[in-house]
TrEMBL record, chain A:
Compositionally biased intervals (Low complexity): 1-17
Alphabetical GO biological process terms: transmembrane transport
Record's bilayer topology term: Multi-pass membrane protein
Organism phylogeny: Bacteria, Bacillati, Actinomycetota, Actinomycetes, Micromonosporales
Protein name: ABC transporter permease protein
Compartment(s) of residence: Cell membrane
UniProtKB/TrEMBL annotation, chain B:
GO annotation (BP), single: transmembrane transport
Biased composition (Basic and acidic residues): 9-28
Ranges where the record places region Disordered: 1-28
Keywords assigned by UniProt, alphabetized: Cell membrane, Membrane, Transmembrane, Transmembrane helix, Transport
Organism: Micromonospora noduli
Protein name: ABC transporter permease protein YesP
InterPro entries recorded: ABC_transporter_permease, MetI-like, MetI-like_sf
Listed GO CC annotations: plasma membrane
Transmembrane residue ranges: 38-64, 102-123, 135-156, 183-207, 295-319
Domain ABC transmembrane type-1: 98-311
């Protein structure tokens, strides 16, 4: 125990005590961490393994990997319904990409107003925006459905409008907040310099804020894409025709057909549906983790 | 701050017409800036009104009616507090859903946060490989909310699933957990806990903010590892714990996708996974009882507001904010 004479003991004693803080010995810690990795990854590997098993192996071989790799589930699942999964993937991709554009544009505009411009009632509107941060979407779904249906937009020629209109109106307060936080870090001297050069609020937005906000825009784009790609609740409520279905809604069709023969194809399509998110994760892992750190948003 | 005082010296400067121009300059600018503020804010404002505020008011009105989507608005009947009365006195499945949701949140959220904090403490030391582990642990938080993963989860805890094959290694004969009313909700809790990565990342960021000197001082005072954790780590981390607790609780109340997939949208087996939001969905969109569903939505919103308020009022007693040092 280092209880006396801390001044003389400090230089030599400090490194060992610093290393021996909560966490235990390195080897033991590594073993525990690897065990957790196994628990975390097991369901994912089992999912991929099962998707490659033959019908017979799914019943008899509960192991992690198939004895013989059979890609047949992927072709079977792809055309399991009257509409091919290609269509569902296209629908999902379209909704997700348009959501990315909508969120990026509209949240950036709102964030610029909140972070940089002075106008009447700004403080009040900002408080309202923060208030909507924790507003559950389930609370609004019934009246939104009624409103969009009254406007003839539910099940119309292009049934995605109810999913997309809110995204073009900056209703994802998380992203507005994230961008406001980011813009507050952009030096105001740059605004001032542009102002002296004769730029107004629009010019400052165009030439200073927009180019410098790229990191925040990228974070917003990645999270918008992943959240929309994974979203189920709104898409379930607003999409009713098979050919309009997105991937998550289409996947639930497999659950209806409870027969064992659908398990392989169902797993195959589940794997494919997670692939884009997984690729995003691999490509932007660091950014995703930093993103939650700086803004506190959840995956 | 310095920028707002900048025009002052020029205003007092020589040359009257130049001073005049300068005086007009900022004034005109401020006016146009106010206008520009509202121009830039307009998409958000339209969204606030059209997608949030008006639907909320509509929902409040509908909660006092017997509206179903099929009858036209002109024939909607005002039923007063009947929906609320039914909810609180005459609808056992409503209270069942409340109980399911509270059980889920009360068990899954603390365990998820404990797992997140525990793993964050393990990862907190800076050494090679920490980024890899952090990324791998975060992956379930990205995938776990999806329909695809819920499907995998249900099959994993089914009769022939991976979980039972794991149990059989120890000579235990499992059962179809997801079809058992006593266990179905538990499998969903495990799915929630499996996604501990997101709060873990936030804990890790919080741990980095704890000054090393505090640990040194504590160990100089003879505090062991456990007392260091209790007297240094926990108080210093309490704002982050609070943040995670509020967020995860609110998220926990809103669990929908996995319960929908497990029960094929029914809340079964025997209503054991009838989460609040699933019950709301069934009431509004399967039974088309939209007036009643609106009343449920408002009670849900008020409940979340009250619980958040309780968190914040009790937070004063255990959340420790060091004076502007962190966050």
């Amino acid at each position: 125990m280092v209880t006396v004479t801390p001044t003389t003991a400090a230089p030599t004693a400090a490194p060992p005590t610093a290393r021996r803080r909560p966490g235990g010995r390195p080897v033991l810690r590594l073993v525990i961490l690897v065990a957790i990795v196994v628990v975390v990854l097991y369901p994912l590997i089992w999912m991929v393994g099962t998707s490659l098993k033959s019908q017979e192996e799914i019943v008899n071989n509960v192991g992690l990997l198939p004895e013989r790799f059979t890609p047949g589930n992927y072709t079977a699942g792809w055309s399991n319904f009257d509409v091919s999964f290609g269509r569902f993937f296209l629908n999902s991709a379209m909704v997700s990409l348009l959501t990315v554009i909508g969120n990026g544009l509209s949240c950036l505009l709102a964030a610029y107003a909140f972070a940089r411009l002075r106008f009447r009632l700004r403080g009040m509107w900002f408080a309202v925006m923060i208030g909507t941060l924790l507003l559950p979407q389930h609370v609004l779904i019934v009246p939104q459905y009624i409103l969009f249906r009254t406007l003839g937009l539910v099940g119309g020629d292009w049934p995605y409008l109810p999913l997309l209109i809110p995204q073009f109106l900056a209703t994802e307060a998380f992203f507005v907040f994230l961008m406001v936080q980011f813009m507050r870090g952009v030096p105001r001297e740059l605004d001032e310099a542009a102002r002296i050069d004769g730029a107004g609020p629009f010019g400052i937005f165009r030439h200073i804020i927009l180019p410098l906000s790229r990191p925040a825009l990228v974070t917003t784009a990645i999270f918008s894409f992943i959240w929309t790609w994974n979203d189920f609740f709104r898409q379930l409520v607003f999409l009713s025709q098979l050919e309009d279905y997105t991937v998550p809604v289409a996947l639930t069709l497999f659950i209806d057909s409870t027969s064992q023969s659908a398990v392989g194809p169902m797993f195959a399509m589940s794997v494919l549906s997670l692939l884009p998110v997984f690729l995003f994760f691999v490509a932007f892992q660091r950014m995703l983790v930093e993103g939650i750190n700086t803004s506190g948003i959840k995956g | 701050m310095a920028l707002t005082t900048a025009p002052d010296p020029t205003r007092r400067g020589p040359g009257s017409d130049r001073a005049h121009a300068e005086r007009r300059g900022p004034g005109r600018f401020r006016h146009s800036e106010g206008l520009a503020g509202y121009v830039f804010l307009s998409p958000w404002l339209i969204g606030l009104m059209g997608v949030t505020a008006i639907p909320m008011l509509l929902s409040l009105y509908l909660s006092f009616t017997n509206y179903d989507i099929l009858t036209p608005f002109s024939e909607v009947e005002w039923v007063g507090l009947a929906n609320y009365e039914r909810m609180f006195t005459a609808d056992p499945s409503y209270w069942h859903a409340v109980r399911v949701t509270l059980t889920f949140a009360l068990i899954a959220v603390p365990l998820k946060l404990a797992a997140a904090l525990g793993v964050a403490l393990l990862l907190n030391r800076a050494w090679r490989g920490v980024g890899l582990f952090r990324g791998l642990f975060y992956l379930p938080s990205l995938l776990g909310g999806s329909v695809a993963l819920a499907i995998v989860w249900v099959n994993m805890f089914n009769r022939d699933g991976a979980f039972n094959s794991l149990l059989s290694l120890f000579g235990i004969t499992g059962k179809p957990w997801v079809n058992d009313p006593d266990w179905a909700l538990e499998t969903l809790m495990v799915l929630a806990i499996w996604q501990f990565g997101a709060p873990m990342v936030i804990f890790l960021a919080g741990l980095k903010q704890v000054p090393t000197e505090l640990y040194e001082a504590a160990s100089v005072d003879g505090a062991g590892r456990f007392r260091q954790f209790r007297n240094v780590t926990l108080p210093m981390l309490s704002p982050v714990i609070f943040f995670n607790l509020v967020l995860e609780t609110i998220n926990g109340f809103q669990g929908f996708t996995a319960a929908f997939v497990l029960s094929n949208g029914t809340g079964g087996p025997v209503d054991s996974t009838l989460m609040y939001t699933l019950n709301l969905y069934i009431t509004g969109f399967t039974d088309l009882n939209m007036g009643y569903a609106s009343a449920m939505a408002w009670v849900f919103l008020l409940a979340i507001a009250v619980i958040t308020a309780i968190f914040f009022s009790t937070g004063r007693f255990w959340v420790h904010y060091s004076d502007g040092e962190d966050r």
